[in-house]
Amino acid sequence: MLGIQSVKTTALRPLEPLERDMVSVYDLLYDSLITIDDNYLPQPGLCESWEQGNNGKTWTFHLRSGVTFSDGTPLTAQDVVATAQHILDRANDEGAQDKGYYANLNYFVDKITATNDTTVTIRAKRSYWGLLYALTFPILPAAYVTADNPPGTGAYVVSTFEPSNYLWLQANANWWQNLPQVREIMIICHNTPGAVIESYEYARVDAIFTRSVSAAQYRNQLETLLMNHSASKLSSINVRKAIRYAIDVDKIAATVYMGMVKRTDTPAIPGSWMYNNNLGAYFVTDPDAARTLLSEDGWYDSNEDGILDRVDGKGELEKLSLRLDVYEEPDNNVRVEAASPGGSGDRMHRVGTHHGGYGKASESGQLRPGPDLLRHGRLPRFRLSADEKQHRQLRPLQFQRHGRAVQGAAQQDRSGQLCGYSVQNPDQVR
């Protein structure tokens, strides 16, 4: 028996998930062309092999033979193409505010075609092997890409679905791999993350899907602070570096998180192939370096009020003011404490930057350009990003304040990543 948070999902639409926990449920029902293993490396999924050509601009994928959907229909290359094309069409729809959960595919794929029933060819927009990480979307039958509860190639099928109540899954007799040992799964829906955790703690469920920081006592998760690169003040690499130099990550870890965390310097799991252990010299607290970088961008305290300012393009004086958006959980205020004055505000060395307050955020709304915001919250799933435009890859965490969502991209560069730490037991630091 599994526990999830689900109140919005009224129909099963794997290409258009409304809730993060439902993405995990869809993983049980649908397979993808490529899977990511426990070492965060791409492995064959519905394809058995692939090769690249034309210096990484052309990719050819060969599908497994004998794979069928849960209704017995054979999987073909046309199904893969139809699924991907549906994602691309939505991502390219200029009139659509919501570009779709898998819209990042559009940044990698220029064209996708079926060479024959078992071969898919992709013409890439750039020579970048990160394309493989974008091919983890669920594959649907060509005739059912917009249907509710479409057949899948996954380990389970839906027997019963009562929205906001429960899902009853049964093993897929047509699954192309060995029949799973667990033949039936009951998934119980909860209203809040706290209710999910409570069900697990009281053994009402055997396992849970959750993004809650409170669940970190049972497993590790990454807490991170991200910058909105498209914001006017944060578009400067000097400002981004200065903020990073000004924040005392170790003090936040020692005080707000009471030392029960392991520091990381990039949004990747330490010990994985993606984590770079040689960047420590770039992630240090150095207020003098921060002041120097800001002065290079013209930020000075001209009126001696303790806040840096400069004359903008209109000849008006603007202050260097930043605001934090925080993903808040009702049952745990660690992130709010880290973001608020007395939290990171007092742990950011005084370089003349104004702490513009913080906004409590919720997982709702669409990704649209936001103001000069930093973003603090959990990265539930790391996905490679080709450039700053790839912020939709982090869509599992969307933030909204006063009806306006905030965008941000997790970049493993020296300017964009502020800090990170892996929470071990946040329940003890409420």
Strand order of the largest sheet: 13-21-12-18-16-17
Beta-strand portion reads 25-35%
Oligomer: single chain
- Uncertain segments are 360-430
Which terms would index this structure?
single chain; 430 residues; alpha+beta; 6-stranded mixed beta sheet; 5-stranded mixed beta sheet; 21 strands; globular; disordered C terminus
Give the gist of this structure.
By secondary structure, the chain is of the alpha+beta class. It has helices at residues 20-29, 77-91, 193-201, 237-246, 249-255, 287-296, 334-339, and strands at 2-5, 34-36, 42-44, 47-53, 58-63, 109-116, 119-124, 156-162, 166-171, 184-190, 207-208, 221-227, 261-264, 309-311, 317-319, 321-327, 354-361, 373-379, 399-401, 404-406, 417-423.
Polypeptide structure, described:
The protein is built from seven helices and 21 strands. With 430 residues, the chain is of the alpha+beta class. The two termini are 28 Å apart. The strands form six sheets. Strands 13-21-12-18-16-17 form a six-stranded mixed β-sheet. The chain has helices spanning 20-29, 77-91, 193-201, 237-246, 249-255, 287-296, 334-339, and strands spanning 2-5, 34-36, 42-44, 47-53, 58-63, 109-116, 119-124, 156-162, 166-171, 184-190, 207-208, 221-227, 261-264, 309-311, 317-319, 321-327, 354-361, 373-379, 399-401, 404-406, 417-423. The protein is globular and about 75 Å long. α4 (237-246) packs antiparallel against α6 (287-296). 16% of the residues lie in helices and 26% in strands.
